[in-house]
Design brief:
The chain is built from 3 helices and 3 strands. It is of the alpha+beta class. It has a 3-stranded antiparallel sheet with strand order 1-2-3, with no helix packed on it. A hairpin with a 5-residue loop joins strand 2 and strand 3. The radius of gyration is 18 Å and the shape is elongated.
């Protein structure tokens, strides 16, 4: 699975680079590479993570702010509504 994920990322990056560098001549090929890479990424994510809801398998989490980290008060703790995945993010200040 990791080889297909890596191949998908390489296809996306190569498609974006060729779209930027050779837009006039390579646009259809570049768009095809990007679409193929995205489909590879989505397909491997849907097959590998069977225990998670479909949006979470594709990386579309719904995070809610649950509190602050105990070790550093400037870190906010977020938790996904569907799969209970937690992440920490630095509190922005201005």
């Amino acid at each position: 699975m990791t080889k297909l994920t890596t191949a998908g990322m390489i296809l996306i990056m190569a498609g974006i680079m060729s779209l930027i560098l050779f837009f006039d001549t390579m646009a259809p090929v570049s768009i095809g590479m990007i679409v193929t890479g995205v489909l590879l990424q989505a397909g491997t994510a849907l097959q590998a993570k069977k225990d998670l809801p479909v949006p979470c398998r594709l990386g579309f989490h719904r995070y809610d702010h649950t509190g602050y980290a105990e070790e550093n008060r400037s870190l906010r703790v977020y938790e996904c509504r569907r799969c209970n995945k937690t992440k920490k993010a630095v509190l922005g200040g201005g």
